């Protein structure tokens, strides 16, 4: 089997049918697929795993995605918004700990005050860290003007997960209104790429109503879109969301996790030079889930550097790991964990995706 996969990888002859089959591999055959993903990572990107210090600076959100714990209609969430000082301090923390880059993430907002605030913050962070820390934004759907403005002020990577590349499945996961249109999201992703950001997307794996065929199409979507970075992980149910009603349809957490590993390995084979994150959702299901993702081909981890008193309020899903730890604990345990699996931290580097430069 391994020989076949190797051949498919070398010739790039990926199809929906082949990918669906490979996504279902388990047991010995799966092990071989995952090993091959790890081998491609070593060959094309080496041993380094890059750190992105994640700052979840606010859980205030204007959207109402059916799967997300911080959706606007969830009245049980204590809403917070970090001060600018706290965010800049997190950037300094990333710098001191040699993280190389950081991600600013929050619930989605697009009011003029918010746009202006991010613009100023970007400039302050650049100044305070002597431009050393790369900045990724994960702030949802915005206008082209906003994307341009933030790019000009120093952000150079943008993450916007498409969540699923299947329009009808997308519709089942979001309310039917103008704030939650599949085509708007797709257009935003195109604009982000056009503006010049290193462009990241991703999907959730094991959603109610989702099949291996959907996931195969997601992988082809990422390849066709020429994406530079991907963050994807298992869907994890949250009691206080509408999608919880459909929990009876879910695959077991283990199945969601194993399928996620296959997604990572296959994407590494399909796009050897991109950045792929070992996501926190993988760790939520398996305590060494991120390490397993790295062994299958992921090369980015996103340690949470949000001041820990707010972590409990940013629960997109339940059982989120590391919410009790301070950022320091995370930075120590991470490098040890990486060394244990034969990798090393890519300290002080932005860790850009070579794919981005090759498509320029
Ligand atoms: N389970 C897993 N991932 C989730 N996200 C949101 N809610 C959940 C959930 N219940 C992911 C989405 C979003 C990212 C920030 O977190 O893919 O884009
Ligand atoms: Fe906030 Fe989906 S609920 S963006």
UniProtKB/TrEMBL annotation:
Note accompanying the cofactor annotation: Binds 1 [4Fe-4S] cluster. The cluster is coordinated with 3 cysteines and an exchangeable S-adenosyl-L-methionine.
Residues bound to S-adenosyl-L-methionine: 163, 185
Family annotation (Pfam families): Radical_SAM
Matching CDD domains: Radical_SAM
Binding locations of (3R)-3-methyl-D-ornithine: 138
Positions of [4Fe-4S] cluster binding: 61, 65, 68
SUPFAM superfamilies assigned to the protein according to its UniProt record, in alphabetical order: Radical SAM enzymes
Cofactor(s) needed: [4Fe-4S] cluster
Keyword Cell cycle attributed: no
Superkingdom classification of source: Bacteria
NCBIfam families: rSAM_HydE (TIGR03956)
Name of the protein this chain belongs to: Biotin synthase
Organism per entry: Thermophagus xiamenensis
Native organism taxonomy: Bacteria, Pseudomonadati, Bacteroidota, Bacteroidia, Marinilabiliales
